[in-house]
Amino acid sequence: MNKKAYYGEYGGQYVSESLMNTLQEIDEAFEAAIKDPEFLQQYHYYLKQYVGRETPLYLAERLSEKYGTKIYLKREDLNHTGAHKINNVIGQILLAKRMGKKKIIAETGAGQHGVATATGAALFNMECTVFMGEEDVKRQALNVMRMEMLGAKVVSVRSGSNTLKDATNEAIRTWAKTAEDTFYIIGSAIGPYPYPKMVKEFQAVISREAKKQHMEAEGRLPDVVMACVGGGSNSIGMFADFIDEPSVQLIGVEAAGKGIDTNEHAASMAKGKPGVLHGTRSYLLQDDDGNIQLAHSISAGLDYPGVGPEHAYLHDTGRAQYVPITDSEAMDALMELTQIEGIIPAIESAHAVAYAFKKAKEMTPDQSMIICLSGRGDKDVNTISDYLAGKGYLN
Amino acid sequence: MSNRIEAQLAQLKEKGEKAFITYLTAGLPDMETTGKLIKAQKDTDIIELGIPFSDPIADGPVIQQASYEAILAGASLKKTFALMESLRAEGVEKPIVFMMYYNTIVNYGIEAFAAKCRQAGVDGLIVPDLPMEEQELLRAALTVSDETILIQLVSPISADRIPEIVKDAKGFIYCVSSMGVTGQAADFHAKVKEYLTYVKEVSEIPVMMGFGIRQAADVKDVKDIIDGAIVGSHFITLLRENGFSEESAEEYTTKFKTELNAM
Fold first, then answer.
1. ipTM, interface predicted TM-score of the complex
2. Which of A87, A215, A271, B181 sits at a 20 to 30 Å CA gap from A277?
């Protein structure tokens, strides 16, 4: 067992033998890159000049007043392409270039990671293929168009449930076949080691900035930091620099879909059990035979039956708490944030906002919390409009 | 107690024969038919029984579809154990290997799974998403006896990992013929010969080749290196085209085995 691939008993490298040497190469290249000042300078250059960092840490005044505690929003929604996903894509694509790879592949559910990857591929002139479940291709037609405009090839995956988990399966299969010249950019904090570590490293910029910004504004650390959790990329980035600050409470918000006592949710921590999927050991929604169950959430980005291995570890050690928020709670919070602060959040991010409103009730006016607003809601207007029209929603 | 796979391979060695191994998805179209298809293959030396899993990342479209249909038809690990028990009770002594994904084992409980394999007469395991670094727990559970052995896989780019992988390997070495997944047309890795030669050189046990093989002629170029061939996706396609008839299973496997040893 390769101990460094694990977070407690979670993580590892559960992939076919034909990928093991590839993972070793990536690990070595990654470890060298993040110690190389030139690589880091390049990464930060693109984050600043291309992505538009740093993103603001905004004190939501009216919300703070209403809920009686200081509510700060880390505005990842203001990044180029509209979400935090681009932070990681820039890092991984620079690594791919450094390794001499010419082609990149990615999986996508809602299309955000696909769009970010296609964007990076256009910027760095690399051939890009994005795998997307047939169902998601249908319900996220605009993002498919964006990816194609950016020059990516979108492969509609027709296998199993035709959603993110199947797109990921297909990306892994293609990777196993083509690893000699192709780099796989995983967008979530999942996958075989070193992927969870890479995604954390490249998303940690969120908490590095937020910590400094909060310190400047309040002269101290926040009391609570929270983020939504699907696979867990924005949340691990939001937690990263606070994990070793015991006074800061970390809260991850899972999608409870129609409720965690129904069969339609994506709360792998609340209702799953440890297992192995997509190269890593973590909490998984699975049936009695060990087959992976379909996740459900109104937000496509949280619609994943597993969670990143470090989150599983933070959960078991009690360092972070994970709580469920239903579709309707998230949609109410989305509307409230829109109307009170003039910010339309992604439905994913609205899950964190919804829990923040609950949490605020136990906090005092001089305490403060940071919510990671991982993305903007432009991509969700169709879902929001269907929801508001009472027609229900897709999925 | 000795292992059926090892016993069978020892016999083949004595006779100077190459091994022929097939793959079937358990429960496709149903468990009863799977049992019949196992018994019909009198010339097949070892049978791989695929335990259907929802997310078979090492498999191509044919086996993915087969797994999916089998799950919909109610197939599961527990039912496959029941099939094994009834086959062994009937006196079927054919070596049988479970090809399965690790989550199915983790879900069952690793210790309980290993014990159940011994009791049900499962001779070996192939777990494509469990590279040597992750095998510790399963190996520990299996070491109680050698009734159920863990088969090691190597790939064309395993390179310097190969000596370590084959060191304590049991039964046979499963050489994947190409990068990627099962069921791609006989499109072997460019350096397949060098790679197989190397594995054969460092391995003390028989070396089998699988992935992308459809007929005996596909392995003609490497027949002097390998000790046997494995056919999966093509066999499933063929059975499907023939309504999963026992005759088609028998006919194909007998022909393959004969040709393999006549080349």
1. 0.96
2. A87
